[in-house]
Amino acid sequence: MNFKIRAATKEDCKEISRMMLELAIYEKAPDQVKITHEELEQDGFCQNPFFECLVAEVPEAHKSKEGFTIVGYALYFYTYSWKGRSAYMEDLYVMAEFRGSGIGKGLLSKVAEVGKKKQCVRLQLSVLDWNTPSRDFYAAKGAQDLTDSKGLHLIRFDGQSLDKLANQAPKD
Fold this sequence. Notes:
It contains six helices and five strands. By secondary structure, the protein is an alpha+beta fold. Helix 3 (103-117) links the parallel strand 4 and strand 5 (122-125). The model has no long low-confidence stretch (mean pLDDT 95).
């Protein structure tokens, strides 16, 4: 299939927002999506963006059944550790009718290329334990599952626990 991977623009945010909801539905969490395309525009295309994003675009002749030409995206940001610079991919999504056409691999490879150009030493991501197709996809590309080998657990503070923690910060 003919497609191109390119950096997302502010004008792509409505399409990215649409696909985020599709991903959330796939992950059985549609009620978890809280951001709007306006927030994506603000947070991704400001002076100090919180994230970067790539989109996969097909020619008009290969558009989706619903008429979309932007059919996938990868959203990522940068982190840092004692190993050095890292890229963290928050989302990788390809619309169902385009899966198996190389678009997911193209997006993943492009995120890796962007990270390498920025001297990142690793690319990290999380996958839900029940999402065997995605886990197999990443494993086939050479990813390591650190759950058992490193004993890593994903830890999160949000909502009231984040508020409570922030309120305990030492005052200046």
